[in-house]
Amino acid sequence: MIHQLEMALWLAVAALGFAVLFNVPKRTLIAIALLSSLGGSCKLILMNFDFHIVIATFFGALLIGVLSIPIAHNKHATPLVFSIPAVIPMIPGAFAYKSMLGFIQLTGNINQTAYDLALNQTISNGIKAAFILLALTAGVSFPMLISRKESVKTMKLS
User: Fold this and answer.
1) CA 114 – CA 60 distance, rounded (Å)
2) Model pLDDT for residues 5-15, shown as the tens digit of each residue
3) End-to-end distance of the chain based on CA atoms, in angstroms?
Protein backbone atom coordinates (compact mmCIF):
# COMPACT_ATOMS: atom_id res chain seq x y z
CA MET A 1 0.00 0.00 0.00
CA ILE A 2 2.83 2.40 0.88
CA HIS A 3 4.53 1.52 -2.39
CA GLN A 4 1.34 2.33 -4.33
CA LEU A 5 1.04 5.73 -2.66
CA GLU A 6 4.69 6.48 -3.33
CA MET A 7 4.30 5.53 -6.99
CA ALA A 8 1.16 7.70 -7.26
CA LEU A 9 3.10 10.63 -5.85
CA TRP A 10 5.97 10.17 -8.34
CA LEU A 11 3.53 9.79 -11.22
CA ALA A 12 1.95 13.09 -10.22
CA VAL A 13 5.34 14.80 -9.97
CA ALA A 14 6.37 13.55 -13.41
CA ALA A 15 3.06 14.66 -14.94
CA LEU A 16 3.42 18.08 -13.34
CA GLY A 17 6.91 18.39 -14.79
CA PHE A 18 5.64 17.68 -18.29
CA ALA A 19 2.63 19.94 -17.79
CA VAL A 20 4.88 22.83 -16.82
CA LEU A 21 7.15 22.00 -19.76
CA PHE A 22 4.10 22.17 -22.09
CA ASN A 23 3.09 25.48 -20.50
CA VAL A 24 -0.45 24.44 -19.56
CA PRO A 25 -2.63 26.88 -17.59
CA LYS A 26 -1.90 26.91 -13.88
CA ARG A 27 -5.54 26.16 -13.03
CA THR A 28 -5.11 22.71 -14.64
CA LEU A 29 -2.05 21.49 -12.71
CA ILE A 30 -3.82 19.86 -9.76
CA ALA A 31 -6.21 18.00 -12.05
CA ILE A 32 -3.31 16.78 -14.21
CA ALA A 33 -1.49 15.48 -11.13
CA LEU A 34 -4.61 13.67 -9.91
CA LEU A 35 -5.31 12.16 -13.32
CA SER A 36 -1.77 10.88 -13.62
CA SER A 37 -1.89 9.38 -10.13
CA LEU A 38 -5.22 7.68 -10.80
CA GLY A 39 -4.31 6.35 -14.24
CA GLY A 40 -0.86 5.15 -13.23
CA SER A 41 -2.19 3.59 -10.05
CA CYS A 42 -4.89 1.81 -12.05
CA LYS A 43 -2.17 0.36 -14.28
CA LEU A 44 -0.06 -0.76 -11.31
CA ILE A 45 -3.00 -2.30 -9.45
CA LEU A 46 -4.08 -4.24 -12.53
CA MET A 47 -0.51 -5.47 -13.00
CA ASN A 48 -0.54 -6.67 -9.38
CA PHE A 49 -3.60 -8.75 -10.33
CA ASP A 50 -1.58 -10.36 -13.14
CA PHE A 51 -2.95 -8.30 -16.03
CA HIS A 52 -0.50 -7.97 -18.89
CA ILE A 53 1.32 -4.63 -18.95
CA VAL A 54 -0.26 -3.65 -22.28
CA ILE A 55 -3.82 -4.30 -21.05
CA ALA A 56 -3.15 -2.60 -17.72
CA THR A 57 -1.69 0.41 -19.54
CA PHE A 58 -4.73 0.58 -21.80
CA PHE A 59 -7.12 0.69 -18.83
CA GLY A 60 -5.00 3.28 -17.03
CA ALA A 61 -4.97 5.48 -20.12
CA LEU A 62 -8.69 4.86 -20.65
CA LEU A 63 -9.38 6.07 -17.11
CA ILE A 64 -7.37 9.21 -17.79
CA GLY A 65 -9.17 9.75 -21.10
CA VAL A 66 -12.64 9.30 -19.60
CA LEU A 67 -11.98 11.54 -16.59
CA SER A 68 -10.29 14.26 -18.63
CA ILE A 69 -13.52 15.07 -20.47
CA PRO A 70 -15.65 16.27 -17.53
CA ILE A 71 -12.62 17.87 -15.89
CA ALA A 72 -11.90 19.76 -19.11
CA HIS A 73 -15.45 21.09 -19.12
CA ASN A 74 -15.17 22.10 -15.47
CA LYS A 75 -11.80 23.83 -15.92
CA HIS A 76 -12.64 25.36 -19.33
CA ALA A 77 -9.78 23.74 -21.24
CA THR A 78 -9.49 21.02 -23.85
CA PRO A 79 -9.29 17.41 -22.68
CA LEU A 80 -5.85 17.00 -24.28
CA VAL A 81 -4.45 19.59 -21.85
CA PHE A 82 -5.21 17.12 -19.07
CA SER A 83 -4.73 13.73 -20.71
CA ILE A 84 -1.41 14.13 -22.52
CA PRO A 85 0.74 15.25 -19.57
CA ALA A 86 -1.04 12.69 -17.39
CA VAL A 87 -0.15 9.70 -19.62
CA ILE A 88 3.44 10.69 -20.37
CA PRO A 89 4.78 9.06 -17.16
CA MET A 90 3.40 5.74 -18.44
CA ILE A 91 5.47 5.84 -21.64
CA PRO A 92 7.62 2.68 -21.79
CA GLY A 93 11.06 4.27 -21.66
CA ALA A 94 12.77 1.25 -20.12
CA PHE A 95 11.56 -1.14 -22.83
CA ALA A 96 12.56 1.25 -25.61
CA TYR A 97 15.98 1.79 -23.99
CA LYS A 98 16.60 -1.95 -23.64
CA SER A 99 15.53 -2.46 -27.22
CA MET A 100 18.01 0.14 -28.47
CA LEU A 101 20.79 -1.39 -26.36
CA GLY A 102 19.92 -4.76 -27.86
CA PHE A 103 20.24 -3.37 -31.40
CA ILE A 104 23.66 -2.02 -30.51
CA GLN A 105 24.67 -5.34 -28.98
CA LEU A 106 23.58 -7.15 -32.15
CA THR A 107 26.12 -5.19 -34.20
CA GLY A 108 29.03 -6.50 -32.13
CA ASN A 109 31.03 -9.67 -32.53
CA ILE A 110 29.18 -12.17 -30.36
CA ASN A 111 28.70 -15.91 -30.65
CA GLN A 112 25.52 -17.42 -32.14
CA THR A 113 23.91 -18.29 -28.79
CA ALA A 114 24.43 -14.79 -27.40
CA TYR A 115 23.22 -13.30 -30.69
CA ASP A 116 20.01 -15.36 -30.60
CA LEU A 117 19.34 -14.36 -26.98
CA ALA A 118 20.02 -10.68 -27.69
CA LEU A 119 17.81 -10.79 -30.78
CA ASN A 120 14.92 -12.35 -28.86
CA GLN A 121 15.20 -9.83 -26.02
CA THR A 122 15.51 -6.90 -28.44
CA ILE A 123 12.44 -7.93 -30.39
CA SER A 124 10.47 -8.61 -27.19
CA ASN A 125 11.34 -5.23 -25.69
CA GLY A 126 10.62 -3.40 -28.94
CA ILE A 127 7.24 -5.05 -29.39
CA LYS A 128 6.28 -4.36 -25.76
CA ALA A 129 7.24 -0.70 -26.15
CA ALA A 130 5.25 -0.38 -29.37
CA PHE A 131 2.13 -2.05 -27.99
CA ILE A 132 2.27 -0.01 -24.78
CA LEU A 133 2.42 3.15 -26.89
CA LEU A 134 -0.57 1.91 -28.91
CA ALA A 135 -2.46 1.16 -25.68
CA LEU A 136 -1.75 4.66 -24.38
CA THR A 137 -2.90 6.21 -27.63
CA ALA A 138 -6.07 4.14 -27.84
CA GLY A 139 -6.94 4.59 -24.16
CA VAL A 140 -6.71 8.37 -24.34
CA SER A 141 -8.29 8.70 -27.79
CA PHE A 142 -11.37 6.46 -27.55
CA PRO A 143 -13.26 8.48 -24.92
CA MET A 144 -12.63 11.71 -26.81
CA LEU A 145 -13.73 10.20 -30.13
CA ILE A 146 -16.90 8.77 -28.61
CA SER A 147 -17.83 11.95 -26.74
CA ARG A 148 -17.46 14.15 -29.82
CA LYS A 149 -20.84 12.98 -31.12
CA GLU A 150 -22.59 15.01 -28.49
CA SER A 151 -21.47 18.16 -26.81
CA VAL A 152 -19.59 17.72 -23.56
CA LYS A 153 -21.90 20.35 -22.07
CA THR A 154 -24.93 18.12 -22.65
CA MET A 155 -23.32 14.97 -21.25
CA LYS A 156 -24.44 13.92 -17.79
CA LEU A 157 -22.40 11.79 -15.47
CA SER A 158 -24.40 8.97 -13.96
Assistant:
1) 36
2) 999 999 999 99
3) 30
